[in-house]
Amino acid sequence: MSAKLTIEQMQALAKAHVGRAPTRSAAPSYKRIRLRQGSDSWLSWRDNGIGASDAPSIMGENRWKSRTRLLDEKLGGVRSAQNAAMAKGSALEPDALKRFTKETGIEAHPVCLESTRCSWLHASLDGLSPDGKVVVEIKCGSSAYRHANKFRQPPTYYKGQLQHILAITGLSEIHYWNYLPGKDPIHLLVSRDEAYITRLFSEEQKFWKELVARR
Fold first, then answer.
1. Do the beta carbons of residue 55 and residue 201 sit within 8 Å?
2. Which residues have CB under 8 Å from 110's CB, separation 6+?
3. Which residues contact 180 (CB under 8 A, 6 or more apart)?
4. Per-residue pLDDT tens for 151-193?
5. Which domains are present in the chain?
6. Strands 30-33 and 173-178, how do they pair?
């Protein structure tokens, strides 16, 4: 199990990685972290950085978790327990990814990424192609499915998560795959939003600095 970073290590990271938001790049600016998602080592790694699922809270877009609550959780080492819907969605993700590959012909695998420009920027991806050119985010919730089916776009509370992933991968688009057993999957392409990513990176930097200062 990975140990938590010391205060000195976190302060060094905060000082070393400031500046511009990650930009679209032909060369990957991340490294793959060999972790099994859901393991204790993975949870510890997540605690020592800002992940894609943290982005909506930091941007004030997550109606279930505020920025303040996220900060308190990271400071206190307390993790939100999965509710029944979240647990069901996680259980469906392997089947959803297999269906994505079957329908699109694109091979993708779960992987953890860490930015080489800002090592506190993390992302646990549902699927990334072996060549790193295609990334997919899977959602298996009924509410998200209804929204995507009606409006042909993901719910706004996922924007931060999707753009965070695009910021780290440097890709121009992400595949959004809404899967529910017994229904036709919904496949959407979400484009990179540079203006949003700039704002997101700024807010994430502020959050990280505050976290480091208070630990």
1. no
2. 37, 93, 97, 124, 125, 126, 127, 128
3. 92, 140, 142, 145
4. 999 999 999 999 999 999 999 999 999 999 999 999 999 999 9
5. 7-214 (3.90.320.10)
6. unpaired
